Amino acid sequence: MKSFFLIVLFACFAIFASAQNKLTLKDAIEIGISKNLDVLQSGLQMQEAGITLKQSKENKLPDLNAVANQGINFGRSIDPYTNSYIDQSVGYVNYGASTNFVLFSGGTLRNEVKSKKLGYEASQMELQQAKDNLTIKIILAYLQVLNADEVLAQSRDFAKVTQEQVDRLDVLNKSGSILPSNFYDLKGQLANDQITIVENKAALESAKVALSQLLNIPYDKSLEVEKIPETNFNINYTDTPDQIFAAALKQFAEVTATELRTKSAEKNIRSVKGQLFPTLGFNGNINTNYSSVATRDFFINTTEGPTSNYVTVDGANYPVIAQHDNYNTQKIIFGNQLNNNLYYTLNLGLNIPLFNAHRVRNQVKLATLNYQNNELIEQHTKTQLQQNIEQAYVNLNAAMDKYKLLREQVDAFAESFHSAEIRFNSGVITSVDYLVVSNSYNRAQSNLTTAKYDFVLREKILDYYAGKPLW
Question: What CATH fold (topology level) applies to the domain 44-60+107-276+357-471?
Answer without folding.
Answer: Outer membrane efflux proteins (OEP) (1.20.1600)
